[in-house]
Amino acid sequence: MKVCAVQLNLKQCLSYNSFLDYIEKEVFMNLPKDVDLVCFPENINLCLLFAKKQNIQKLGIKTYVEVLFDKIISSLDLSFLLRIFNIENQKQIIIDVCSFLANKYQVTICTGSYYHTKDNKVYNSVSLVDPSGVLDEFSKYKLTGFERALKLGYQDYPKVIDDLGICICYDLNDKDFIAEMKNKGAKIILAPSNGWRPFPNYPFDKIKERPQVQRAIENKVNIIRPYCSGWLFPFFYFQGHSHIVDYNGITVAESKTRNKTELLFADFSYLVWHSHYCQSEQFFSCLHFL
Fold it and tell me: Looking at 22-36, 53-67, 104-118, 173-187, which range is the least confident one?
């Protein structure tokens, strides 16, 4: 099974067509034909903050300041921000674009996350899409202070679709949550993340801020963690530390840039899609960055 983790530079797209054009040119036109799965980062919806509605075709490391900021902001009510931006329109564009591309290129896509309303609450969620359409949806469990200020809901149980476990960013910090995902049959865990930082070159501790390494070792699963990259607005910089780790905790691929779109590849040849382990347990990886 060959997977691609997309480190995505957050370009603003104003419509379905511009988003489709951007994603296809940045990612799918650069994909090898044998890729089975493409995984986008958390908050891919940030590319669509100002998109118009239209008829569409089918921290690991925590300093004292960070902890204080998290506590203060989580006590606020910032839910009005979700009313300013059309989150349902963002979701629809993301789902429709990914459905179109999954069918055109015959791949499975983990959409990256978006905000949407469900049961009178707003969730940060990701969908798994294959050439036939949307397979399932998972909502984030471990919320950041900013997300608590947005008054988001959360999903406190893991989602596994065939061999794929799906979680979002900080969910990787919960040892029991990932273990339960493994117990449900996950062999590969997709963990879209955003990696927000206030400025470039913000300290990044690979040991403390890569819980995926320890989760992989504990559970003997491969973990794919794509991040956003580059500037969105002043004080909204995304660090781009995208990373793929195998079931022994060994780095298979990691991004080289912090502000560019990159495609990270890993071929887990010892896995059979929708099946169990084969006798051969070899893998290879390559990295292509734009």
Answer: 53-67
- Listed in sequence order, the residues at least 6 apart from 243 whose beta carbon sits closer than 8 Å to its beta carbon are 5, 210, 212, 225, 251, 253, 254, 255, 264
Strand runs labelled E in 119-219:
121-130, 133-139, 159-161, 164-166, 188-190, 196-197
Give the range of the structural domain holding residue 201, as residue numbers without chain letter: 2-289
Instruction: Give the chain's domain count.
Output: 1
Type of residue numbered 228: C
Q: How many CA atoms lie within 13 A of 37 on its CB side?
A: 26
Q: What is the pTM of this model?
A: 0.84
CATH number of the domain at 65, please. 3.60.110.10
Crossing angle of the two packed helices 16-26 and 87-105, in degrees rounded to 10: 40
Alpha helices in the chain (DSSP H): 16-26, 64-74, 80-84, 87-105, 145-149, 175-183, 211-219
